Each structure stands twice: as structure tokens, then as C-alpha cells.
Amino acid sequence: MAAAASVPPAGDTPPAVVLGAGYAGLTVAQEVYRRSKGTIPVVIVDRNPVHVLRTELYEVGRLASSGDDAAAWVVPLAQVFDRTSVTVRQGTVRLIDLAAQTVLLDSGEQRFRSLAICLGSVAAYYGVPGAAEHAHQVYRLSGAKRLAAAIRDIERASISLPGERCPRFLIVGGGSTGTELAAEIATTDWKAIADPAARAPAVFLLTGALPLLAGFPPRIIERARKILARSGVTIITGLNVTRVEPGRVYLEDGSVLAADATVWCAGLEAPDVVRRLPVPHGKGGRVAVEQTLEVPGHPGVFAVGDVADLQDPVTGAPVPATAQAALAEARTAAWNVVARWNDRPLVTFRYEERKVVVALGLGQAAGAVRRVPIWGSPAALLKRIVQRDYAHSIEQGETPSTLI
Fold this sequence. Notes:
By secondary structure, the chain is α/β, with parallel strands linked by helices.
């Protein structure tokens, strides 16, 4: 068994490279550094110089009132790794060459000895015409900011709408992102943000063929449905979107819904650079990994978080593409990066969901903690506390414990 001391000097050895500084990538880089006590050189690559708090991007009301200041949604990577030997490299990943153990960036080439692919996910449009061109999305900070600004402008213009017409917003996708966004738009005080005479929006949540919050416990779904109804959100189920145009959305029964803005929250898939990898893929182009999170046939290469396709060996159900799961996977992947580096046995990943909370507008949420239902203001407070604790840990350069 090779000891860490037998590894050639860091200058002669390609580093452990982490692609992506999202929830998974940040944790992998931190944990590899910590577990190796700094003996393994680590390079983390991201197109942005900041870590984005992606689970909070549905907060379009706060974004709209903040103007161009997005500091509350990001943490500078230089701050995260300030007291470590981790190298931050800014660049967009163009190609991953597993055979040559190199990554091609728009800023040059990066060699690796170990690799953790943590590039997150992008919106899946399923070939729906016009969806990518005419619908907003909140999966990236830039998209969330554009949506927030658009809603603010629409609300300001609402004072001139004829009769009693009010702004109409269509949210496509009834998962946690779409549900949280619909509730946020419906309960935000747009009069305070846009104009005192602004009209309250009409919000429609289109779940498509899937039920609302598919996969969540029934009691949470029912509670969420009631809270959404009280907030004025109209839920439309059973009909998939077939086309998106400026100002309108077409459904599969031939009906057409008018919209001042449409937001696409109907699903995620792996980015193209991951889909092009010559390895087994699962749903949405995700990389089918071993229980160790290692890519089959490529020792030392791991796929983590949203890009990983992994089934729970006990239930057979896929591990969810959530921030909570990404953090859990990242800790296992980091352990195994260090193990591979030192020629030690790998460990398998086991996932246990401890908390699940869906924000449902101002001071409202529904969820469960270790299968015990929680809703209303206590659930909203729990979600906010966990999010703030995560951000504080990251700002201090610490590895966070969990996120919901």
C-alpha cells in the first residue's frame, strides 16, 4: 500500500481537480484538503469566481428589491479557500479527456491525477419549441436576476393595464423549484418593490403530467397545496406544455394560456460537456456511477451531485438531485479521492434524507424532519436557519453539515 509520502512532489504530479464550485464541488475540494491535511494538491475550476447559493435563487422578490447587488446570493471562492492550499482556477469547461487525463478550458488546459466532476445541471427543455428562447429560468444567478427584473418591470407597468386585468405569470414544473417560485411571486409585496399602485399578480403553476411535488410525502403535498391556494396560486395538473411563445403557452389539449412572463422549472439534465463523455449515462445524460461514485472503468474519476446517476441499493430509487444529496455525496467522493491517491479501499455511498422543506412564500413552508411533518412558520424558520448556517460555514471556510 503506497503512503502519501511516496507520491512524487506536487510540482511533478498533476493535482486532484474538481470541476464546478457548486454545492458538491465546493465540499469535495474542502474535504480533500482537510482529509489529506493539505498533502494532496487540489485545483477547483469554475466559470465564476464565486460560489452561488443556488437553493435561494427562487427569492425573486429579494432579488428585485436588491437591484444589481447580488452579494447575498454569492460567496467569493477566494474567501472560501483563503486559509487553504486549494488553487482556484476560473474557466469554462470545454472538453473532458478521460484517457489523456486532461480538461480543456476556455482559459487553457488542466491536467489531473484525480477528477471530481461536479458541474451541476442545466434546464431540460425536452424539445419543447420556444421553451429555451421565451421562458425564464432560475437555475443560474444570471437567469434569476433577469426574471426578478422582468417581474418588477411588469408590475410597474401593471398600473396601466385596462380594466381589472392583472399581471399573469406561468410557472412550468411542479417540483420544489417551481412550487417555491410560484409561492414567492404570489406572496411578495410588489407594491413596495415596484409601485404603490402595482396590481397583485395572478400566478399559475403548471405541473404537467406529474403531480404536484412528485416524490414528496403525501402529507407535505397536501399541506403545500392548501398554502398555495391561500396564497392565490392556481395549480393546473395533467397537461404538458407543447410550445412556448412570447406572451402565451400552448398545452397538449390545444388550450392556450396568456402570460406576461413564463418561467421554466420543468426539470434538469447534465450539461453537454458531461453528456459527451464516453461513459455509461443514465436519465438526463447523468453519468452512471458505481456505489463509490467512481466512473466505471476510470479509477480516480468521480461524478458527484446533479451529474451523477445513482440508485439507492436498498430501495432502488434514484438518489435525488438536491443540494442535501450533493453535500452527502461530496463527502463520500472526497474520502474516495484521498483513498485512491493513497491506494486504499474505497467506501460506498449511503444516502439518508434527514430534512426536506419546501418554502411556500412569506413565512410559510412545509416539510419533514426525520419523517416528522412540520409546516407553517416553524418550517419556514427552519429552512432559513439551515440556509444561513450553510452560508456562514462557507464564508468561514468550513465544510457545512447539511442543506435543505
